[in-house]
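RETRY 2/3 - previous attempt timed out on the joint model. Re-submitting the same 581-residue input unchanged.
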Amino acid sequence: MKPLSRREFVAGAALAALAAAPHRLHAAPAATPWRNWSGNLVAHPAGRLAPRDEDELVTMLRRTSGPLRPVGAGHSFSPLVPTDGHLVVLSEFTGLVRTDPQAMTAELMAGTRLSDAGRLLHAAGQAMFNLPDIDRQTLAGAIATSTHGTGVNLKSLSGYVTALRLVTPAGQVLDLSAERDPDTFHAACVSLGALGIVTRITLRNRPPFRLQTRFSVAKTEEIIDCLEACAADYRHFDLMPFLHGDYALVTAQRETDDPAVPTTAADDDAGFIELVKLIDRTPVAERRALINSAVSGMAPGESVDWSFDALTNFRFDRFNEMEYSVPADAGPACLREILQAVASDGIEVAIPLEYRTVAADEAWLSMYHGGPRVAISVHRLAQHDFRPLFTRVEPIFWKYEGRPHWGKVHSLGYDRLSALYPRLGDFVALQESLDPRGRMLNDHLRRMLGK
Amino acid sequence: MTTRPARRARLRLCLFLAGLLCGPAATIAATPAVEPDRAAAYAAAFSTAALTPEVQRKWARSCALCHVRGEGGAPRMGDSAAWQPRLAQGDAVLMVNTLEGLERMPPLGYCMDCELGDFAAMIQLMVGRR
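RETRY 2/3 succeeded.
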């Protein structure tokens, strides 16, 4: 085994801390702990603040003095939320506030779940341009971490924000937009919850639309050769190559006027979940034959749904995830190297990789700031130790100038991040001006922001 | 991660393989041991749990996401047959599973502002004790 470089050693230590965190649960048996979706993170907050409205939030912020961390649905795998101070929960901040049919914009309360936003907007004659696949997330949590879907011409959710309301730790209410205060606005569009509490978000939308979803199976090597052209051919293009196998699942979606064909999400995902579990129970050396046989035999499928149903409604066993975005032209090479490394090292993993394209946006800390990128995701079922897989794959992302997804497992601190995110220094300066006492920070944020 | 590609037509082979090679998957996890001090705290929460309008609102925006339609294999509210084997494990285990997650249910069941008493009241509501 080759010796670890200093960077790889530090990265391994950071990942180990994330993987080991749940054992702390038993330290405070009487408290109501907080855990994230996958269960790899746990915290024992001093309390939970769940204000009923913005006035109460302002009062709470002014009357308290300790650390604060906002929490959405808890879908982040990176420790953005854990605190021994107070969690701020926006569960009462839900719903559609107003729409502007001419501008095709809508203001939503920041705690609204994406699953609710789609239907609320549909009833109001609007639809979001794009959505991620997990619809339990809150709007605030999604934009705070630059959450995205897939589509060559489609931005992350943060790229469609036209205005937002930010309540600073001191209780000051700021209404931000690109016209009113561009610097603070572009920082707040991907804020990591470090600037204050975002309470309202205005999105640029479009009229409702339906998507025709076509599923197929392809030889991974063949589809990688045409990735750029294939992705450009569809509104949404999602590739899931199996590791330890020669095939990939391809989901390609186009806008259509055809009527919706109802589907049941729970039924739709059942076979895929069973296949992943079967792969997980099969020795690595025997997986290629199993995967190639099972996946190559899958029949193609097709469906039509309204966009918010076609793009989301993901139900899967819990897992942990690492995701980096690399420059679009580096995507195929990075993907090939990951597939080769995992196969040659015989690393345990059952869930396929995921490869998605995302257009550029202007948010300072967006993974897509400055140019289009592809997001490559690596998953490990939650009951397994993710470290062998993630520590092997993460240095490959670094070779391709990969930027980590803020809400997913990574090991980078300020030095490395500031080279990847050119506005990180500006973000830190703004954070200090809005939160001079550092109330909105936890250990993870201090490490990433160089404090 | 997207699994929308998984449509019925293409699932038959996978389901067949899974059933053929592995048999039925376990649906109820083994009963975990609960430390005495935690069990006492949970028992106290159940004994004083109250289904207030506020708790009902919390239930509607968290547990109801899955337990009304049975999404992800969640036992449906009021389905006594589905809840019976879970009830047999005891209140403390139900609370541990709620706090730590179980299979596809995430820890805290998506209720980020719930305390022990809230969870106790919501569990009692779903298993039909209220």
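Chain B touches chain A through 48 residues (CB under 8 Å). Closing ticket.
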